[in-house]
Amino acid sequence: MVERFNRRINELLQQTRFNRRVDLQATLLNYLKLYNHHIPQRALGSKTPALALKEWQQNRPELFVKRVMNKRDSKIEDPELSDREAAKLFNI
Fold it and tell me: Staple partner for 24: which of 18, 38, 55, 63, CB 3.0–4.6 Å?
């Protein structure tokens, strides 16, 4: 899916000449919205990426819980999360 997105962005950039940085930025943001909200992806069961993410969040809300980290020593500040769970979650 990422490869397809990158290929389409590359095609867009090859076909368009931008005179100002703001024009390029606006075009990329518009395409990002179009791709994520209006173009269904076969890899996602013919759903848009935004819809697939929304369904994933509804089905697996535990994956979308924000875990606060202490950046100084990288210890998780969630007492309910064991060291083993943290290692599994962060692939440590």
Answer: 18
